[in-house]
Amino acid sequence: MHFTQTLPILRRDRPQRRGSNPRPVVSAAQARDRRSGGPQDQALYACSCGCAFKAEVSTSVGCPHCGTHQAW
Fold this sequence. Notes:
Elements: H1 28-36, E1 42-46, E2 52-56, E3 61-62, E4 69-70
Antiparallel strand pairs: 1-2, 3-4
């Protein structure tokens, strides 16, 4: 069988051209933090009286319903 055109030869010895600055690798946790607006200073607390509330992160948080201090 005779070919009328020559086939191009793929050259693997040339370095691949890529963008001048590769994108930095970002973990899933970092991406989630960036989407949410950064770290949060509030936590969700659940009291023994059944009240669930958000309050500033602290070692001593009082329940707004019954006043019981929440242990961290």
